[in-house]
Design a protein that fits this description.
Elements (H helix, E strand, L loop, with lengths): L2 E5 L4 E4 L6 E3 L26 H10 L3 E4 L23 E3 L4 E3 L5 H11 L4 E5 L7 H12 L5 H8 L10 E4 L14 H18 L4 E4 L12 H10 L5 E8 L6 H5 L1 H22 L7 E9 L5 H6 L16 H16 L4 E7 L8 E3 L5 E3 L3 H10 L3 E3 L7 E4 L3 E4 L1 E7 L5 E7 L6 E7 L7 E7 L19 E2 L4 E3 L2 E6 L3 E7 L1
Parallel strand pairs: 1-20, 3-4, 3-12, 4-7, 7-8, 8-9, 9-10, 10-11, 11-12
Antiparallel strand pairs: 2-15, 5-6, 13-14, 15-18, 16-17, 18-19, 19-25, 20-24, 21-22, 21-25, 23-24
Helix pairs in contact: 3-4, 3-5, 5-6, 6-8, 8-10, 10-11
Bound molecules: alpha-L-arabinofuranose (AHR).
């Protein structure tokens, strides 16, 4: 059966905030060391930033880059990470049982972002696990105050005369999780977050603040946590965070393929909770969403890896290798984010390099693109503008976790120049899916490209030995005729169809 939908410029979801294509650099494993930063690497610049990685980061098209954690942030002492490198202390990182050398710190992070280009924006996470209001304010003053105070002058003394201009701040990380150093109840965290936010706004009313939501939809405190935290912070914060990771459990690939069903429900549940608190407070303000950690992550393998560590520097951790199957699910997660662009303002692919990442590196050796690199780069490049409302009429398939799920998952974005990009996933593992899209009043006359990520082997992946085993190819037979787009989506495929 054919899957169908209609596109009409009168029916839109919302405008895409560029920060929907954010990412995340945590001091975890080799994300920073031998990932982004490797002095002595043949491509490294004078600051130790790997040129090959920088080129791939630019190609990937990331915008906001969250830093420095993650679970790491709950033990982070910002002052360890500034000033002369040789004087910076080595510290135990309790979250990842590693040793942090602080050779890469705040100034290096900002300089990395500036090298990426103007599209890259800092998103700084604060330690509200083992620290609080005072340290958050000190960091804010050090980073953002122009000069003439002890901390802002210290920054200049450290070589950074210009303020870092950090606008977007996360008030802690996953504070609902018992694994978090300094874990809190919702009431405890809500008060800390509110007082930190109030103080930060005294320093600069223009900051944008993200309160911690749940670290996952399956947390026992989910929704109640958000309601309690927002009751305390509603007028003081801009966003609430969501985190979600997906993997095939017990070999249930069909449910894994429908992971975005869960992601979309998660978003809708959090929106409902935000609006419920807003209604209770009789507020006209809307709290939007920062989906600041999302990805496919084979997480069930992680605990064992971490507990075996004996405080090494930059160990190989969470270095998942992504297959074509993973990339199709990953693309579907991107579609879920775009379909909720009216409320999801920020989203961070966790993470950027080596650690559950689209970019992999070998110390002293090459960098390469994982399969997930392609959907992200294409969505960031073409998914800018107005999201059109897509309501699919699709054949379905049975899943253990989500019941009947649509075989087609899709969205469409109209750029400022009037061109439209359709992003579509065929979840069928075996069957091609015919697609028929009615185009109303969009003035579109031609297909300018159809890119497909699919492979006869769904387990195919890019590796050090074979870094270009999987790359997108051109789709065949896609046509636009008389206001109708027709295509056949290959089994288990991610598709980007460009219309002008
Ligand atoms: O991204 C990896 C980890 O996942 C982060 O440190 C933490 O916030 C989450 O649990």
């Amino acid at each position: 059966r054919t899957a169908r939908f209609t596109l009409d410029p009168a029916f839109t979801v919302g405008t895409v905030d560029p920060r929907l294509f954010g990412s995340f650099v945590e001091h975890l494993g080799r994300c920073v060391y031998t990932g982004v930063f490797e002095p002595g690497h043949p491509t490294a610049d004078a600051d130790g930033i790997r040129g090959d990685v920088l080129d791939l980061v630019r190609e990937l098209g990331v915008t906001a880059v969250r830093y420095p954690g993650g679970n790491f942030v709950s033990g982070y002492r910002w002052e360890d990470s500034v000033g002369p490198v040789e004087e910076r202390p080595r510290r135990l990182d309790l979250a990842w049982r590693s040793t942090e050398t602080n050779r890469f710190g705040l100034s290096e992070y900002i300089s990395f972002l500036r090298k990426i280009g103007p599209q890259a924006e800092p998103m700084m996470a604060l330690n509200l696990g083992t620290r609080g209001v005072a340290e958050a304010l000190q960091l804010q003053e050090y980073a953002n105050h122009p000069g003439g105070t002890a901390l802002s002058d210290l920054r200049a003394e450290h070589g950074d005369k210009d303020p870092f201009g950090i606008r977007l701040w996360c008030l802690g990380n996953e504070m609902d999780g018992p694994w978090q150093t300094g874990h809190k109840t919702a009431a405890e965290y809500g008060r800390t977050a509110a007082e930190t936010a109030r103080a930060m706004r005294q320093l600069d009313p223009g900051v944008q603040l993200v309160a911690c939501g749940s670290s996952g939809r399956s947390m026992p405190t989910f929704a109640e946590w958000e309601a309690t935290v927002l009751q305390e912070t509603y007028d003081l914060v801009d966003y609430i965070s969501l985190h979600a990771y997906y993997e095939p459990l017990d070999g249930d690939v069909d449910s894994f393929l429908a992971s975005a069903v869960d992601m979309e429900s998660f978003i809708e549940d959090v929106v409902a909770t935000c609006d419920h608190v807003g209604a209770r407070l009789k507020s006209r303000k809307k709290i939007n969403l920062s989906f600041d950690e999302w990805n496919v992550w084979y997480m069930s393998r992680t605990d064992e890896q971490v507990s075996a560590l004996d405080w090494p520097e930059a160990p190989r951790l969470l270095e998942d290798s992504y297959s074509v199957l993973d990339a199709v699910v990953f693309g579907s997660l991107l579609i879920a984010l775009l379909r909720h662009a009216d409320r999801v303002a920020v989203a961070c692919l966790a993470q950027l390099v080596n650690v559950i990442a689209p970019i992999m590196t070998e110390p002293g050796g090459p960098a390469w693109r994982q399969t997930t690199f392609f959907p992200f780069a294409q969505a960031s490049k073409y998914g800018r503008g107005e999201v059109l409302d897509v309501r699919v009429d699709s054949p379905t398939y049975a899943t253990e976790k989500y019941g009947e799920a649509d075989l087609l998952h899709a969205t469409a974005v109209r750029g400022e120049d009037g061109t439209v990009t359709v992003f579509a996933v065929n979840r069928s593992r075996t069957e091609p899916l015919p697609l028929d899209v009615a185009l109303n009043g969009l003035g579109l006359t031609s297909v300018t490209g159809h890119s497909v990520l699919a492979d006869a082997d769904p387990d195919a992946r890019n590796t050090l030995a074979e870094p270009e085993r999987v790359v997108p190819h051109a789709g065949e037979g896609t046509t636009l005729d008389g206001g109708r787009l027709t295509a056949v989506l290959e089994p288990l495929s991610w598709n980007v169809i460009r219309l002008a």
